[in-house]
Write a structure and sequence with these properties.
- The chain is an alpha/beta fold.
- It has 2 domains: 118 residues, Response regulator (Rossmann fold, 3-Layer(aba) Sandwich); 93 residues, Arc Repressor Mutant, subunit A (Orthogonal Bundle).
- Helices cover 41% and strands 22% of the residues.
- A 5-stranded parallel β-sheet has the order 2-1-3-4-5, sandwiched between helices.
- The protein is globular.
- The protein starts with a strand and ends with a strand.
């Protein structure tokens, strides 16, 4: 049974999410602040965290970043704001999906299910290390090295880079990338891919142009 940690300082929202999550067969735990979420994740393993952004003491973005420093748990972020900046910042700290309040509990559970299934499936790796020019991707350790320097990647950045790299020279549409990295049942739009590509390019430094934009189609990974 998958276990979800719900982190929100509004008791009514926590109770509603718990009720729907249990209907879907999930086990749940709840905390009211990001600091509590960090400590709970140190003590227990969870398959997903549903976390509000704006909370007293420690906000959701800060909590997400601190949790990912010691444990790989996917995060579905809740927020009363839905600006592009908030979403970009959320993806940068490792958020897997973003839902704006008010939301449909059924849609929230559908998104949660997609994230949990994707995270539980471990695709076999054909190669342990991919290398080109000054880039090296360790597919077992999920680590990127740029000119020998280790560079932090979020789960989605790693998934995108791996997918593009393993299809080197092949143009992949935004829909294809959504399918491969987010899952076939992802409910977001294809701008999510553009945001993540922008963040990923920044991580590649002098090799950012290895990810080519094919206007009106998608992206491909290729030297030069």
């Amino acid at each position: 049974m998958a276990k979800i940690l719900i982190c929100d300082d509004e008791p009514d929202i926590v109770q509603m999410i718990e009720r729907y999550a249990r209907r879907e067969g999930y086990d749940t735990a709840a905390v009211g602040d990001g600091r509590e979420a960090i400590e709970r994740c140190r003590q227990e393993d969870f398959d997903l965290i549903i976390m509000d952004v704006m909370m007293p003491d420690t906000d959701g973005f800060t909590a997400c970043k601190k949790i990912h420093a010691f444990k790989d748990i996917p995060v579905l972020m809740l927020s009363a704001r839905g600006t592009e900046y908030d979403k970009l910042f959320g993806f940068e700290v490792g958020v897997d999906d973003y839902v704006t309040k008010p939301f449909s509990p059924k849609e929230l559970m559908a998104r949660a299910g997609v994230i949990i299934r994707r995270h539980q499936v471990s695709a076999p790796q054909k190669q342990q290390r991919l290398e080109v020019a000054g880039l090296a991707l360790d597919t077992l350790g999920h680590e990127l090295y740029v000119d020998g320097q280790r560079t932090e990647l979020t789960a989605k950045e790693y998934g995108l880079l791996l997918c593009l790299w393993q299809n080197k020279g092949i143009v992949l549409s935004r829909d294809k990338l959504l399918d491969q990295v987010w899952g076939y049942e992802y409910f977001g739009d294809d701008r999510t891919v553009d945001w993540q590509i922008k963040l990923l390019r920044n991580k590649l430094g002098p090799y950012r142009d290895y990810i080519h934009t094919i206007r009106g189609v998608g992206y491909k990974f290729e030297e030069g």
